[in-house]
Automatic annotation (TrEMBL):
Keyword Plastid part of the UniProt annotation: no
Organism per entry: Tulasnella calospora MUT 4182
Protein name from the UniProt record: Alpha-1,4 glucan phosphorylase
Superkingdom per UniProt: Eukaryota
Sequence similarity: Belongs to the glycogen phosphorylase family.
Alphabetized InterPro entries for the sequence: Glycg_phsphrylas, Glyco_trans_35
Function statement: Allosteric enzyme that catalyzes the rate-limiting step in glycogen catabolism, the phosphorolytic cleavage of glycogen to produce glucose-1-phosphate, and plays a central role in maintaining cellular and organismal glucose homeostasis.
A single GO BP: glycogen catabolic process
Enzyme Commission number(s): 2.4.1.1
Length: 835
């Protein structure tokens, strides 16, 4: 099971790891001392390390020279005290040097050619680890492995794995953004990303002794981040609060309030097998004046640093809880801070072209990733009207041509809304602009449908009530020239449900679809090198061809009946399972049966994602196996059921499901009758780097969300590079015909088989009464689907063929295809290749 957590450590930084039995250094280990005090360096490396760069210049490669240079100068260390962390940093800085050269050349190319640029605004970028991805994209991994060995670090993968995840996102939205900027560089598009530099990323998830999730801070910036470039020369003042005084019909002067400095940190984003290197610019918040000396001298020490603390809190934490007014205010401040700084930067870059603002949309395209950056619409209007003296109607025409909006949900309760009083307090000028836009828009609606008061109420940017609310999705729609969903079915639902009135008003041409995709570099080549090598060998020996055109994977189908190819494919899967099993044994102390079917569900914990349906099905499987005799148990298809994902800190029901999963696992894994037949694990602190181990080891991915609640399911795309994917379809049954099997499972939980049953009563009641997420309706058919999986897994040849077919048919779901779709149909930008 998960290793018990000492309550005294909850919320504290992770303790340092125990030292190795021998202290590792860049030469392998500390130099030995002879009796007369002389140092003896292992493997004859004294000339490399002790003599420093002079020896390297004549004896080693330029890469080795670069690493040694960064050891001695950038991190100011010597060979005898270089540990794993120091070696990682030196290698990372060396790799960054390559990125920076390409980055500078790419930006110079854009400056010289002045193409139209696209900017991707996302409040989350779930980047994961950078070193391995950068080396693969640069084509330098093998060279750096050799250099590391020359310096005594035999296990290069161990260095790679020492990197902290940059967890600047919660899940699919942030990971999608990371895939898109990777693909933008790979496709040689002039595309930048803009986000926030959170000091604390997605929380560190721990599991306590009773199976509950406990959140601890994730101070991922505690160590220097080699992958960012601090740009103190790029900074902008962002205003909050104050008052807005109108001048004439459309202009206003916004003054007073609080001013916060937005300072840029750049992260170079390399393309794959190209020198093109784009940029992810993250904003950090700093006070306009860091220290109030008068307050300090007067003895008021708290007031002396108050403004500093208030400003820096803006980028302290990813997505604070928004279940109280303070949290809501901070989140809205984050959204405006980031979009205002980004638009100031984009506008400054445009002005350098010397073109009139009437051509702004000919050089700038901005994509709103969900509703979080929607405040950019009135902010660009404020810049145009208040600062650049552009007439209102012309400013609005340009604004609409600049923005595109990607919708990620059709759930009305998930569409972002902000209370008008909060907006009035925090962003008074933007509230004026939104009300003015709404007035003009409703006049146009009234003209098209006279006297249709219901329609006006439905389409208004302002939801009436006490208080009034601003509908940010509607603002994004009217402020954009193009609106898209992220899968064919989802985009159709957008058009026919939540945006139907707007489709009627604007016409269907404004509403399109861009099916999401994932990058095959990270999710196949990087995390599954065995499969990548096999595909390359099978398709002709040049992986760059299929990695940059995933449709070429269909060439695998011509080998699907070759027994030798089938065996190689199955061997890769087994090796991936063994690798993941080793990770689990090292981190959780649990041994996995690698011949078992690995059944995986990893995503944010949410009732609509129905991890509950999965664990209830596991309990049913457990009860069924327990009822069998020894001979019958021997015929059961063995399973390892793996859960992973984090619940929002304030989401009680999701956290209760995590607790149930862990306590079910505790019982099942300790039962001698189930050893090797059924193992259940909740993998704590699921992250990109954990996914890179788990996904290649999976046999099936459970994608069992309530029908109509998931936009595209990019997590499943990653699994489809691997094996069988099944989607459970909803077949409704009446509440009077509830599942007898589920009733037994709920009874067993309530009776205390997995700990105090009363703890789970709130969860069980969600199924007994109402069952909003249709667990009871789908339970029996879910069990039937699981039986089909068991049957299919027993036919090993057929299973391997299914796996090959699934991977071969994944070409459409490359983020390269998706980003080119945006470039050609939404942004009107073209590739600009760096020679």
């Amino acid at each position: 099971m998960n290793k018990p957590l000492d309550p005294a450590t909850i919320g504290q930084p992770e303790p340092p790891k125990e030292p190795r039995r021998h202290q590792r250094t860049a030469t392998g280990y500390l130099p030995e001392k002879t009796e007369d005090g002389k140092e003896v360096w292992p493997r004859g490396q004294e000339s490399v390390w002790k003599s420093g760069l002079r020896a390297v210049e004549t004896e080693e490669t330029s890469i080795t020279k670069s690493i040694v240079h960064h050891v001695q100068t950038t991190i100011a260390r010597q060979a005898y005290n270089i540990d794993e962390e120091g070696a990682y940093r030196a290698i990372a800085y060396s790799v960054r040097d390559n990125l920076i050269v390409n980055w500078n050349d790419t930006q110079m190319l854009y400056t010289r050619k002045a193409p139209k640029r696209a900017y991707y605004l996302s409040l989350e970028f779930l980047m994961g680890r950078t070193l391995d991805n950068a080396l693969l994209n640069l084509g330098l991994k093998e060279d750096y492995q050799k250099a590391a060995r020359k310096l005594g670090f035999e296990d290069f993968e161990e260095l790679v794995e020492s990197e902290r995840d940059a967890a600047l996102g919660n899940g699919g939205l942030g990971r999608l953004a990371a895939c898109y900027i990777d693909s933008g560089a790979t496709c040689e598009l002039p595309l930048w990303g803009y986000g926030l530099r959170y000091h604390y990323g997605m929380f560190w998830q721990q599991i306590s002794t009773d199976g509950s999730q406990v959140e601890a801070p994730d101070p991922w910036l505690n160590h220097a981040n080699p992958w960012e470039v601090h740009r103190p020369d790029v900074s902008y003042l962002v205003r909050f609060y104050g008052h807005a005084e109108r001048i004439g019909d459309s202009k206003a002067i916004w003054s007073g309030g609080q001013e916060v400095m937005a300072v840029a940190y750049d992260v170079p984003i390399p393309g794959s097998y190209t020198r093109n290197t784009n940029n992810l610019r993250l904003w950090d918040a700093k006070p306009k004046r860091g220290f109030d000396l008068n307050s300090f001298n007067a003895g008021d020490y708290e007031k002396a640093v108050e403004s500093s603390n208030s400003a820096e809190a803006l980028t302290r934490v990813l997505y604070p809880n928004d279940n109280h007014m303070v949290g809501k205010e901070l989140r809205l401040k984050q959204q405006y801070f980031w979009t205002a700084a980004s638009l100031a930067d984009i506008t400054r870059r445009f002005k350098q072209l010397g073109e009139p603002f009437s051509k702004f949309h000919e050089y700038v395209a901005i994509q709103l990733n969900d509703t979080h950056p929607t405040i950019a619409v009135p902010e660009l209007m404020r810049i145009f009207v208040d600062e650049e003296d552009i007439p209102w109607d012309q400013a609005w025409e340009i604004t609409q041509k600049v923005f595109g909006y990607t919708n990620h949900t059709v759930l009305p309760e998930a569409l972002e809304k902000w209370p008008v009083p909060l907006f009035q307090h925090l962003l008074p000028r933007h509230l004026q602009i939104i009300f003015d836009l709404n007035h003009s828009f409703l006049q146009a609606v009234e003209k098209k449908w006279p006297n249709d008061r219901d329609r006006l109420t439905r389409m208004s940017l302002i939801q009436e009530g006490f208080p009034q609310y601003i509908r940010m999705a509607y603002l994004a729609v009217i402020g954009s020239h193009k609106v898209n969903g992220v899968a064919e079915l989802h985009s159709e639902l957008v058009r026919t449900t939540i945006m139907k009135d707007f489709v009627d008003f604007y016409g269907p041409s404004k509403f399109g679809n861009v099916t999401n995709g994932i990058t095959p570099r990270r999710w196949l080549d990087q995390c599954n090198p065995g499969l990548s090598s096999l595909i390359t060998e099978t398709l002709g020996g040049d992986k760059t061809k299929w990695l940059k055109d995933l449709s070429k994977l269909e060439g695998l189908l011509s080998h699907i009946d070759d027994p030798a190819f089938q065996k190689k494919w199955a061997d890769v899967k087994l090796q991936n399972k063994q690798r993941f099993a080793q990770f689990i044994e090292q981190t959780m102390g649990v041994k996995l049966n690698t011949s078992a079917l690995f059944d995986v569900q990893v995503k944010r914990l949410h009732e609509y994602k129905r991890q509950s349906l999965n664990i209830l099905g596991v309990i049913h499987r457990y009860l069924t196996i327990k009822s069998l005799n020894a001979e019958e148990r021997a015929k059961v298809v063995p399973r390892v059921v793996l859960f992973g994902g984090k619940a929002a800190p304030g989401y009680y029901m999701a956290k209760l499901v995590i607790r149930l999963i862990n306590n079910v696992a505790k019982v099942i894994n300790a039962d001698p009758d189930l050893q090797g037949i059924l193992t259940v694990l909740f993998v704590p602190d699921y992250s990109v780097s954990v996914a890179e181990l788990l996904i290649p080891a999976s046999d099936i991915s459970e994608h069992i969300s309530t029908a109509g609640t998931e936009a595209s399911g990019t997590s499943n795309m990653k699994f489809c590079f691997e094996d069988l994917r099944y989607n459970h379809q909803y077949h409704p049954t009446s509440l009077e015909e509830r599942s007898p099997a589920l009733a037994v499972v709920c009874k067993v939980i309530a009776e205390g088989r997995f700990g105090d049953g009363s703890i789970y009563e709130p969860f069980l009641n969600t199924i007994r009464t109402g069952d909003y997420y249709l667990v009871s309706d789908d339970f029996d058919s879910y069990l039937e689907a699981q039986k089909m999986v068991d049957t299919a897994y027993q036919d090993k040849v057929s299973w391997v063929k299914k796996s090959i077919t699934t991977t071969a048919k994944m070409g459409k779901f490359s983020s390269d295809r998706a980003i080119m779709n945006y470039a050609e149909e939404y942004w009107n930008i073209e590739p600009v290749k760096l020679n």
